[in-house]
């Protein structure tokens, strides 16, 4: 009987040893990086709105023309200008809106697109805006009758960025005096003061 008991115990011990060897090792403890779940991206979270620098209106003043308004001169204009004769005539008739002597015509050209011209009230010369068309999506403009500065603000090609460019008109020609890409989406801009309303434009 004792011999039988010893055999049973030996067999049991062998089975226990084999079971311990075949058992799968416990999974490794998660690392700190694995333990912390990534924060979900909130698509509806408010985006940063760009901060606009002041428009240098006072640095480039213009004397306001008060004489008779010249009719637009289409004789020297190119074909693109002549396509919009009626709109340009109507804009010229409303008087000086920019740079001391220019009327301004602005019109839509499709989704997120505007274009336009300025009309010299003293001689009728028609000049295209320096920023307009499909290359300037979501374009906004700011200008005043008593200043030669025109500010253009539009959606930059970079994500969540706003393109800004300031122009000055001299002797019937626009020249750029400032150009930069601002971080954040463009704010809605007051067309007379060039100041941000604080609200996103898109």
Describe this structure in words.
- The strands form three sheets. The protein has a four-stranded antiparallel beta sheet, with no helix packed on it. It has a three-stranded antiparallel beta sheet with strand order 1-2-3, covered by helices on one side.
- The chain has four helices and nine strands.
- It is globular.
- The protein is of the alpha+beta class and 202 residues long.
- The termini are far apart.
- Strand 1 and strand 2 form a beta hairpin.
If you compute it from the alpha carbons, what radius of gyration comes out, rounded to the nearest whole angstrom? 35 Å
> Got a strand count?
9
Distance between the termini: 93 Å
Helix content: 10-25%
Q: DSSP helix count?
A: 4
The shape is globular
The pLDDT mean sits at 84
Beta content? 25-35%
Structural class: alpha+beta
Strand order across the largest sheet: 4-5-6-7
Biggest pleated-sheet summary: 4 strands, antiparallel
- Residue stretches low in confidence (pLDDT < 50, at least 5 long) are 1-22, 33-37
Order of helices and strands: HHHHEEEEEEEEE
């Amino acid at each position: 009987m004792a011999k039988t008991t010893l055999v049973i115990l030996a067999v049991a011990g062998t089975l226990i040893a084999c079971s311990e060897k075949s058992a799968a090792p416990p999974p490794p403890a998660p690392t700190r990086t694995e333990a912390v779940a990534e924060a979900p991206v909130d698509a509806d979270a408010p985006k940063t709105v760009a901060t606009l620098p002041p428009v240098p209106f006072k640095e480039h003043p213009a004397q306001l023309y008060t004489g008779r308004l010249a009719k637009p001169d289409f004789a020297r204009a190119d074909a693109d200008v002549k396509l919009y004769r009626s709109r340009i005539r109507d804009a010229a008739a409303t008087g000086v809106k920019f740079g001391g002597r220019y009327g301004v015509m602005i019109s839509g050209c499709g989704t997120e697109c505007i274009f336009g011209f300025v009309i010299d009230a003293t001689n009728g010369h028609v000049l295209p805006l320096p920023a307009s068309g499909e290359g300037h999506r979501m374009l906004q403009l700011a200008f005043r009758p008593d200043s030669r500065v025109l500010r253009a603000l539009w959606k930059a090609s970079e994500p969540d960025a706003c393109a800004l460019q300031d122009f000055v008109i001299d002797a019937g020609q626009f020249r750029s005096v400032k150009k930069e890409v601002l971080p954040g989406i463009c704010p809605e801009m007051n067309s007379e003061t060039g100041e941000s309303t604080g609200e996103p434009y898109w």
